[in-house]
Write a structure and sequence with these properties.
Layout: H1 5-13, E1 30-39, E2 41-46, E3 51-54, E4 63-65, E5 70-76, E6 79-82, E7 85-87, E8 91-96, E9 102-104, E10 107-109, E11 112-117, E12 121-128, H2 129-134, H3 137-140, H4 147-163, E13 175-176, H5 192-200, E14 204-208, E15 211-212, E16 217-218, E17 252-257, H6 258-265, E18 275-279, E19 300-305, E20 309-313, H7 314-321, E21 328-332, E22 336-341, E23 350-351, H8 352-360, H9 365-372, E24 377-380
Parallel strand pairs: 1-13, 16-23
Antiparallel strand pairs: 1-12, 2-5, 2-9, 3-4, 3-8, 5-6, 6-7, 8-11, 9-10, 11-12, 14-15, 14-24, 17-22, 18-19, 19-20, 21-22
Length: 382
């Protein structure tokens, strides 16, 4: 790709927040993905053609790596050492020829690579959004699922990426490549079905009152999604609870020894002693109470012991004991505590298994998205 194209695209992307929703554009924005941080060495090669190494994209390349050869970059005395050549700059840009792509430690990526000098090296993939999605969607939803579910996931992933651009700006990139943002594995993850889903929805983005939404999604709601205020503590008008076609989905159970349970909930100078009682309403999906949200998720549970009482939120318990969701019951025996529940994830926005069920019932991707994200519009941004 021409080395100036990405620069132009980056400038154009800055206008997204002020463009009217009806604006049409032939370009697409670039996004930067942190592939790894704090690395001592990275190996790069081209799949076809040569690699070009720049310390400034406004200048001519400082190195050319012919096809079939490898570029090894490591840090030495706070300087880059590229194939044993010392380079003083704060970053290196490695671009393939227009028809090629870059292998990073053997893994292929579209776009180009930037190496940043940050506590070792940070490896960043500069890539157009649509190309990025090729490597995201198959990692976030099974490629064997129906086309309408995959299209819905493609739009949710695109919207999330554009909304959360700059999330890791302090670290030198937009999004990370893990589940903290979206799982991304470049070209090695690409599948024909998910690439087709991305292509067929190119540039389609979800908006609420003129602004791109934070299109959260999760694996399975267990039967009903959640209101944002019961997870985040603040109301987001398009993240409202909705009932699923199926309930009590993705059942799970976790058993914790009584000793381990008491030790964890007593952390932070709390005293419980011997557990005598658990105060929590029985779980019914879609039924709320004072200690459960309208979907049935745990708001707060109280544990009564010989030395005191401890109240913990469902989110705290989920974090403490690595539970799949907050849609659960708790049962205590003499030597163990058993959590049993449904679903997987925070419960906000699109439920992936729920989207599959809707698609399998004949719903199209637009219907699926408008069901899970309340009051939004679907616009073609580019």
């Amino acid at each position: 790709m021409n080395r100036y194209l990405f620069l132009c695209v980056s400038v154009l992307f800055a206008a997204i927040t002020v463009l009217p929703m009806t604006a049409a554009a032939s370009w697409q924005p670039e996004i930067t993905i942190g592939l790894s941080q704090g690395v001592a060495e990275v190996r790069l090669s081209a799949a076809s053609g040569a690699l070009y190494v720049y310390d400034d994209l406004e200048k001519e390349p400082m190195m050319k790596i012919p096809q079939g050869q490898e570029l090894s970059v490591r840090m030495m005395r706070d300087r880059f050492l590229a194939n044993e050549k010392e380079i003083k700059g704060e970053r290196l840009v490695i671009q393939p020829e227009s028809t090629g792509f870059v292998r990073v430690n053997g893994m292929p990526y579209r776009g180009f690579i930037t190496l940043l000098k940050k506590q070792g090296m940070t490896v960043v993939n500069n890539v157009p959004v649509e190309d990025y999605l090729y490597g995201v969607v198959p990692k976030e939803m099974p490629p064997s699922w129906s086309a309408e579910a995959l299209r819905a996931q493609s739009i949710a992933a695109r919207t999330f990426a554009l909304k959360n651009r700059k999330r890791h700006s302090a670290e030198g990139f937009d999004l990370c490549s893990t589940a903290h943002c979206q799982v991304y594995e470049g070209m090695s993850a690409e599948m024909q079905s998910t690439t087709a889903a991305v292509n067929s929805t190119r540039g389609e983005v979800l908006f609420y009152k003129g602004a791109i939404i934070d299109a959260l999604f999760h694996t399975d709601s267990g039967g009903m999604t959640e209101f944002s205020e019961h997870v985040w503590g603040s109301t987001v008008p398009y993240l409202r609870a909705v009932k699923e076609l199926r309930t009590q989905t993705q059942p799970w159970s976790r058993t914790v020894s009584m000793a381990s349970f008491v030790q964890k909930i007593e952390a932070g100078d709390k005293s419980l002693g011997t557990l005598k009682e658990i105060r929590l309403s029985p779980l019914t999906v879609g039924k709320g109470s004072t200690d459960r949200t309208p979907s049935g998720r745990v708001r707060v549970a109280e544990f009564v012991g010989t030395k005191g009482r401890i109240s913990l939120s469902g989110n705290d318990l989920r974090s403490m004991f690595s539970l799949p969701s907050t849609l659960f019951d708790i049962r205590a025996g003499r030597t163990e505590v058993v959590f049993s529940g449904y679903g997987s994830g925070h419960g906000l926005g699109l439920s992936q298994w729920g989207a599959k069920a809707l698609a399998d019932s004949g719903k199209g991707y637009k219907d699926i998205l408008l069901y899970y994200y309340s009051g939004v519009t679907l616009e073609k941004l580019y």
